[in-house]
Every structure is written in structure tokens, then in C-alpha cells.
Amino acid sequence: MIERLLIANRGEIAVRVARTAKRMGVHVIAVYSDTDAAAMHVAVADEAVRIGPDAAAESYLNIDAVIAAARETRADAIHPGYGFLSENAEFADACGAAGIRLVGPSAAAMRAMGDKAASKDVMAKADVPLMPGYHGADQDPAILAAKAAEIGFPVLIKASAGGGGRGMRIVESAGGFDEALAAAQREARGAFGNDRVLIEKYLTTPRHVEVQVFGDDHGNVVHLFERDCSLQRRYQKVVEEAPAPGMRDERRAEIGAAAVAAAKAIDYSGAGTVEFIVDATTDGANGPFYFMEMNTRLQVEHPVTEFITGLDLVEWQLRVANGETLPLGQSDISLNGHAIEARLYAEDPTRDFLPAPGHVVAFEAPEMSRAVRIDTGVRTGDDIAVSYDPMIAKVIAHGADRDSAIAALDRLLAELVCVGPVTNQAFLRRAIRHPAFMAGAIDTGFIGRHAGALMPRRDGVPNGAITAVCARIFDSRRQSAAARADARGEPNSPWAASDSWRVNLRNGETLIFRDGEAEVSVIAFHDAGQVVLEAPDGRAIGVGNEHGGWRAYGQGNIFFAAADGTQIHLERVVPVEEASERAGASGGLTAPMPGKVVRVMVSAGDKVSRGQTLMVLEAMKMEHAITAPGDGQVAAVFFAEDDQVAEGAELLQLEPVED
Ligand code: ADP
Ligand code: ADP
Ligand code: MG
Question: Higher-confidence residue: 621 or 258?
């Protein structure tokens, strides 16, 4: 029995594997790189071991470090998750040599499937249909060009050792072949250390349909139905669902049987996925299907299969690794309803899905239920690290049929708050609500073809978003003032009052925000405890706490408003600060970092001149002067000596001098 499981991965999959292991009473050991020392996957584990610096090659891909961590913690098994070492046969060998069970197939099965060209030889022998193409060992460019012509253009050149959508080139005609070949080889050498390629007929309207298989060490192999992963960008999956829309039962049985045959051909044990490409030109999911590759590990999108089968795939993995027979036979496994998953990435759809790592200011998941699930390794306050995959979460929903599953996923995406990094959240909602998607008219070209309609867009900043952000600013001001008054034992001080304590309230207070390139101004009138917001032209913007569903996050000058799965980033522009920027003065009125107030040199009502020191903070054993960015009058001082302040906390409030 596995009693102590080391999870050689990070992020959502490490958290997800830990959940099942703990439920089964297994002691969970996490590993981490420096940047992940306080990550969620470490927090959920029973113990954790540092395995190296941030670079994956020196930590999560470092076989010696992972094995040493397992030895040190007396782990009896290792779960590799996906990515990283999960399909690495040398790692499987190293586990064997160390007497540690690897939760996964044998090294031989990994070797048989690790190379796309070699795996096609095995599949041909097992009568699994292959895409017309060439996967021979002869890599002479002239031979490859001749094979491409024989197959007929367009063709796809693939890196034999490839993965993650890299090392692929489409060639439209004979003229472009040599250049595309050189590029594919270069990329393959760089990414996989091996420049062998294969050539396939390029399908122009394909669907990606894959089958989840499971084997045990006693010769049993079953399939857990298919998943359709046709919504892709850069050959990488974005939305996955099960069952495949429009697939008829007979075809489901055929493709399932082909996948089982593929797994049996290599005595497969554990969880695996056989990926097929379907020519969807005339009959959608029921068109001819061809073997593409086999992934010898748990797949990112396994939760949709868990929803439609009601099974826990990680539990099955651990049981198989324990030497048990599969919990169910093929005829005991049934398909129930429809499930769909969307991958929430820190990436910018409007910039060709460029990764956008950053600080997660807020991550708030709605209530989970039997029909909705969010798998994540990220919490409020965490960073999406530049060193790793920018996936933030998998958002998954189940319904009685496809329409209700899509509706449930859409609601979940609308309610989920994830602000800070730029994400594809709004893009995902547009994708799954697109009429063509709702009708099941999908293929791998969907995102490219509908890009225009899927890109998030808006005109200006919604009033509710500004109102929510302003309310947040005034709330934090009030709290600071009240805290100060309390600390000084003057709870009735006018500075603690929650209403019209401001000096120039009759004129209103102008707040300016930067929304990307644009600037938005609002005038706030503080009227008997109520804040009324107007645009400079007098148009009403909002009142007090009525935000129309928008929620505000952030502090200092950086704010986010979120509603309906959309986030708006608003940067507050403080005019005196701008003036000082132009004048070259330094220092703002918010704490530049967390620290302690060591001196307060002004009080409310004082007139100050530009450059004058107002307050001194101590942080990281150094003193920082907070200086007046311009001439003005101190309206309020929010902290006293010895107070601790958070980064971005508003320290004082300055106003232009009134004549
Ligand atoms: P699939 O499982 O459907 O093949 P991918 O190919 O996108 O989906 O998943 C594998 C990829 O996930 C790896 O190539 C790697 O870049 C990335 N990856 C590996 N580990 C993690 C992790 N813990 N969190 C997020 N992404 C990861
Ligand atoms: P990877 O190892 O990078 O996942 P795959 O062989 O699984 O590589 O292919 C990834 C994606 O590329 C597929 O999901 C599909 O969108 C596209 N693709 C692969 N082969 C073909 C083909 N012959 N014709 C058209 N598209 C293809
Ligand atoms: Mg693939």
C-alpha cells in the first residue's frame, strides 16, 4: 500500500492529487522551487521539501533532486502530475532503481509512446488507423520533400519528440517546404534536443477527440469515453468537453475500442490518453478518425471525464499503482450528462494570447457544488510566476445535457473573480456563448476564425466600476481616520466622522483614473454620509454603495473592478503627484513598501511646501522620507508614530491650498 506519496509537480495538479491522496489516508509530500516556497500546493501538503531554484531544469525537472527528496522523506511512491517528468522514461527508471513506485505506466510504455514516429509503428501493428503520412527514419530533406508531395499539400511537419504544440509547421505547397522543414527542425532541436520530424496530411477542418484509457497490472484495459478538445489556440487546448458534441454511439464505441487496442498493444497500466484527430469536414465528430499520439499520464482536462463518469481518476491511479485490479469493468462504466472545462490563463487574448504573469490581487471562487468545480493552485495574494505555465485555474461544470453544462460554466465564469494579471476570462465566456459553439459547430480553427467576435471589448468604464472603486477609496480613508482617532483616544474627532469631514466638500473632489490609454474623471460630492459621483459634464455616475454588481479591489493608486467575469484596471492619478513627477521630486503619499511609521512631522491643517518631509517610514532597516510632492495643505494624517503600514496604504492626504 502506498502510505507516503511525493507529488513531483506544482500548481493546480499538485493540489488536486493531494486532495484525493489525503482522502485516501495517504501522507502527502510536496516539493517546491524557491519561488513556490509558500505556494498553495505546499500549504495543502503534510510536509514539503525544497528541490531547487526557479528554473524548472534545476527543480521540477531535476530527476536527482526529486529522487533525493523522496528518499529523505521516506516516500514509497511518486505522482508526477502532468508536464514536467510525467512522461520521462529516465525518471521512471530512476524511480525503479530507488525502489520507489511511480504512479504511472512502465518506462517501456513511456518509451513506446514518447516518440510520435515510433508510436505510429506500434499503432500500425495494432490496426489503429493512422493519418496518411511519413514517419520513417530517413530524414534526408530531399526524401522528406518527395514524401510531402506524395501525401499531397497541405502537409503538417511535426517534431517527432514534440509536445505542447511546439515544433509544428503547416506547408501549403511544395515551394514552402524546405524553409518550413528547416524551421521545424530548428525549433525541435531547441525545445526537445532532437530534430527528427514526421510529415502528416494536414486536415483543414479537424476536431481533436481523445479517449481516456485505464489499464492495470493484470492485463485489464478500459476506456472512460472521449473528450473533445477542439477549441485551441497555438495548438493548445482552451476548452474541453465530454462527450464529443454530435458523436453517435456507434462511433463512440469504435473510437473507444481503438483506444483500448492502442493501450493493450503496449501493456498499458495506469491513466493514459489516446489522442485522435477527426476529419470533421462532412460529418462532424463522426468523420474518419486517425491516431495522433498517446499521452502516458493524467491529462489536464481529466475533470470532465470525472464529471460524466462519477469516478475519481487519481484514486484509480493510486489503486492501480498499489497493484489492485481496475475498480470497474467496461460494462460497469456509464456516461452521465455532459461536462465542460475552460482553462483560465494569465494571458492576453488581444495580444495573440501572450502570457501575462503577475500578482493575483483577488481570487474569489463562488460556492462549489456537485455540478461545478474549480481546480486551482492559486490564492489571493499569490503570483503567477514567469518561470512556469501561466494557467491559473480550470473551471468545470456538469449538466444534464450540453446546453445546461455550457450555461452552468458561463455562470461560473461570470461569478469567479480573478483580478490582477490580464486573463482570458472574458474571452472564455464569449467563446462558449458563441452561437456556432453552442450549436456544436466546432473544429480546431474555431478560435482563429471567430477571433474578431471573441475578443473582449467595451466602451469606456461602466459607471458601476468607477463607483465601486471610489467607494473603496473613501472606505479605506474613513477606516484610516477612525483607526487614528481611536488610537489617540478621540473617537469623536471630526477626522473619524464617516461623513462630510472633508475641507472643500462644497466644490466636490475630483478623482482621476487612467484606464489604459484613456483618462476618466469623476467628481465626488460628500453629502451627509453619502457620496454622490458625477462626471465633469454633470452627468450622474453613481451614488454611494450602489455598484451594479461591480466589486472593487486594490489599494494605493492601483485598483481593479470586477463583474460578470470582466476586470477593469484603473490607476488613480493624483494631480499633485503628477506635478511632482514633472518637477522631478520624489515621494508619494502612499507607503512604497510595508513598514513602520517612525516620525510624523505634520498635522492636519498645516501648510506645506513641495519637498518638505511629512513623515518618515522605516522599512527593511532603512528610513524613507515621505515628502510633499507639491505645495499644499495637509487635510488628514492617517497614521501615528509606531504604526505598522501596509504597502500602498494611504498615509496622508494633501490638498491644494485654498485661497
Ligand atoms: P494535455 O494534458 O491535454 O496534453 P497540455 O499539453 O496543455 O494538456 O498539458 C501539459 C503541459 O502543461 C506541459 O507541457 C506543461 O507546459 C504544462 N504544465 C506542467 N505542469 C503544470 C502545472 N503544474 N500547472 C500548469 N501547467 C503545467
Ligand atoms: P502535441 O504533442 O504538441 O500535443 P499533437 O500531435 O497532439 O501534438 O497535435 C496538437 C494539435 O495540432 C492537435 O490537437 C491539432 O489541433 C493539431 N494537429 C495535429 N495534427 C494535425 C493534422 N494532421 N492536421 C491538422 N491539425 C493537426
Ligand atoms: Mg497532443
Answer: 258
Q: What is the model's pLDDT at position 74?
A: 98
* Bridge partners for 279 per DSSP: 206
Mean pLDDT across 572-597: 62
Rounded Cα distance, 409 and 652, in Å: 44
> Predicted confidence band at 575 (pLDDT cuts at 50, 70, 90)?
low
Is 3 within 8 Å of 29 (Cβ atoms)? no
- Pocket of ligand 2 contains residue 197 by CB under 6 Å: no
Using CB distances shorter than 6 Å, the residues near ligand 1 are 9-13, 81-84, 163-164, 236-237, 295, 299-301, 389, 391
Ligand number nearest CA of 161 is 2
How far does CA 141 lie from the centroid of its chain? 40
Q: Give phi and psi for 635, each to the nearest 5.
A: -90, -35
Q: What pTM was estimated for this model as a whole?
A: 0.87
Query: Does residue 165 line the site of ligand 2, with CB under 6 A?
Result: yes
Domains detected in the chain: 4-103 (3.40.50.20), 112-201 (3.30.1490.20), 206-454 (3.30.470.20), 463-582 (3.30.700), 589-655 (2.40.50.100)
Q: Which residues participate in catalysis according to the annotation?
A: 297
Task: Determine the angle formed by the axes of helices 89-97 and 107-114, rounding to 10 degrees.
Answer: 170
Give, using CA atoms, the residue closest to atom 4 of ligand 1: 299
